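Second opinion, please. Pick holes in both lines of this record:
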Amino acid sequence: KLVITSRIHCALPCLAMGTPVIFVNGFDSFVDSCRFDGILELFNRIDVNSKTGTYTNNFNLEGKINENTKVVNLEKHHALADPLRKTSKAFINS
């Protein structure tokens, strides 16, 4: 129904399978954050400031997450996946 994770190796397959996912981003170090360049915008995201505990989100999250929370993936990953799919099919057919 909904996956909430801070693990990119969990969040990416959720996108691919169409499972609603919220990525919790609380990484402050360059080593951690540089791994996410170019993919963070693909997710519904909660960004947590580890120093202050404040958070923001990039989707319409109102209040606390509970069993009635409905989340729809942003579907931005299709812009990356569709060209890869076409290139792979063309390679196989050649």
Notes: DSSP finds three helices and four strands in the chain.
